[in-house]
Amino acid sequence: MRRFGLAIISIVTALTLAACGGTGAGGGATPAGSAPASSAAAPAGDTLVGVAMPTQTSERWIADGKAVKEGLEKAGYKVDLQYANDDIPTQTQQIDAMITGGAKLLIIAAIDGTALTSQLETAASKGIKVISYDRLIRDSQNVDFYVSFDNYKVGVAQANALLFGLGVTDKDGKATGKAAKGQDIEMFAGSLDDNNAHFFWNGAQDTLKPFIADGTLVVKSKQTTIEQAATLRWLQETAQKRMEDLLTSTYGGKGTGLKGVLSPYDGISRGIITALQGVGMGPSIKDGLPVVTGQDAEIASVKLIADGVQQSTIFKDTRKLAAEAVKASQDFLSGKTPEANNTKDYNNGKKVVPSFLLEVDTVYADNIQSLLVDSGYWTAEEVKSGVAK
User: Fold this and answer.
1) Cα–Cα distance, 203 to 155 (Å, whole number)
2) Distance CA 75, CA 263 (A)
3) Which H/E stretch holds residue 315?
4) pTM for the full model?
5) How many Å apart are CA 378 and CA 389, to the nearest integer?
6) 214 Cβ neighbours under 8 A, 6+ residues apart
7) H-type alpha helices, 291-317
8) With the CA atoms of 264, 267, 273 and 278 taken in that order, what torsion angle do they form, in degrees rounded to the nearest 10?
9) Do residues 263 and 293 lie in contact, with contact meaning Cβ atoms separated by under 8 Å?
10) What are the residue ranges in the chain where pLDDT is below 70?
11) Multiple choice CATH, 151-315+380-385, 3.40.50.620, 2.160.20.80, 3.40.50.2300, 3.40.50.300
């Protein structure tokens, strides 16, 4: 994962050198080239920033934590980075300790977006700014900024990938007019306590509903609500079990007729694929494995895409996300307000949180090289092996 750290250091170094003309986080979909941070951004070396990440069971969160930490340290801050292993009490205790330990700012990727009200009240009472990282913290007035991707568009992109894989549309989302009617699909959602899961679901549903309504697609299980499709903690094993149950209850135990599965995350996708292959489907799409979508460009899934097993994934460049978190931190700690590019869509139940949203890309087998290898996100060797170096 060393490349993530090097990339973010390069971004922050460039921002710091250019800081004399900046006004904080800038607009545009490529933050590495957007407006630089302010000239006051270089802090005293004893300024502590607390960074709370949800888990180390997903390689993307390891990469996020490493990139944020190295970017902040390059900018001159001390960093307390903690992972909570998807345990809510552990994360609340870690954040309490960061506050007690003198953190001047908190960057939090919450496990449960509703479970941190007490910690955020304490932070606010001490003048500590809070940046919600990728997962929106809910039900608190004391969230100062949100950095993420356009999560509704992530869901749209996942649905479009599924439709493309089924021959319903082309890559640009235009109907082909050649798709067979009555194609059976199933749908999975993320963890209900993660606000992003709802945005992914809504974007996907708004895109798929016209094709379900006209009979092109059929959700054979009739499990069409987010509550029915949810996967607690985004766990691969949970997704595999649900897919196995659906195969037994709805598809005669063999998956007969199932053509596609909407999956919101690569770990869930791998669980789904394991279940499908377990009843003799596949081993690849060309051999009859249903089309399965994904998200996060995890290396194990990128290999599956290259091998024709998983159809697609949504690439969220966490190097750029970490860079935005660092820029927002620099602004807050120098007494400035980070510049948002969305001030209307992310209501956390108590307030609309000013947000900076990044764009995403859809990865298929034919653009792994251009999107992931050429950009340095993964190497060709890692794609071939499916293992991060």
Assistant:
1) 4
2) 37
3) strand 313-315
4) 0.84
5) 9
6) none
7) 299-306
8) -140
9) yes
10) 1-44
11) 3.40.50.2300
